[in-house]
């Protein structure tokens, strides 16, 4: 009896220390502001590996927003098949490069939304909100 209680306690301790599994699914979205335009896709595979692509443009002329939205969306759609999955450390909320410190993505479990932290040059991270989708769209800004 005492052996069984110890065995169960050890199992519970080991499972409590186990690494959280990242959510499986697809997310997409974009950001426009301050002269920056970003379109993004993320797919988290059942293996836990992540495919991510986020073409961007900075210093965007306001007169060409629609043109660049279309161009970046096409780049995203056309380049997606070549994106290789990669590993990230995941703590149940935040994704980081293996052994890294800077957040790369943050997952909100309650809404299932993901925020991509995009680092452009030496600037602070640019948060790009992504929504969950069943399938990717040609226009990542589109809803639904």
**Structure class:** alpha+beta
Count of domain modules: 1
Q: Low-confidence segments, ≥5 residues, pLDDT <50?
A: 3-15
Percent helix range: 10-25%
Q: What sequence of helices (H) and strands (E) makes up the elements?
A: HEEEEHEEEEE
Q: So how many helices?
A: 2
Q: Could you tell me the mean pLDDT? A: 88
How many beta-strand runs? 9
Shape: globular
Gyration radius over CA = 19 Å
Distance between the termini: 55 Å
Strand content: 25-35%
| Largest sheet descriptor | 9 strands, antiparallel
Explain what you see.
The chain has about 140 residues and is an alpha+beta fold. It has helices at about 1-15, 65-80, and strands spanning about 25-35, 35-45, 50-55, 55, 90, 95, 105-110, 115-120, 125-135. Strands 1, 2, 3, 4, 5, 6, 7, 8 and 9 form a nine-stranded antiparallel β-sheet that branches. It is globular. The N and C termini lie far apart (about 55 Å).
């Amino acid at each position: 009896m005492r052996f069984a209680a110890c065995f169960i306690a050890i199992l519970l301790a080991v499972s409590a220390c186990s690494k959280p599994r990242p959510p499986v699914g697809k997310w997409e979205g974009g950001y426009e502001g301050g002269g920056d335009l970003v379109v993004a896709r993320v797919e988290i595979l059942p293996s836990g590996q992540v495919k991510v692509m986020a073409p961007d443009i900075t210093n965007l002329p306001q007169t060409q927003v629609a043109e660049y939205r279309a161009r970046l969306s096409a780049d995203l759609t056309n380049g997606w098949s070549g994106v290789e999955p990669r590993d990230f450390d995941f703590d149940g909320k935040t994704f980081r490069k293996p052994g890294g410190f800077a957040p790369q993505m943050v997952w909100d479990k309650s809404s299932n939304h993901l925020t991509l932290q995009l680092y452009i040059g030496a600037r602070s991270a640019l948060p790009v909100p992504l929504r969950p989708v069943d399938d990717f769209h040609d226009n990542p800004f589109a809803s639904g």
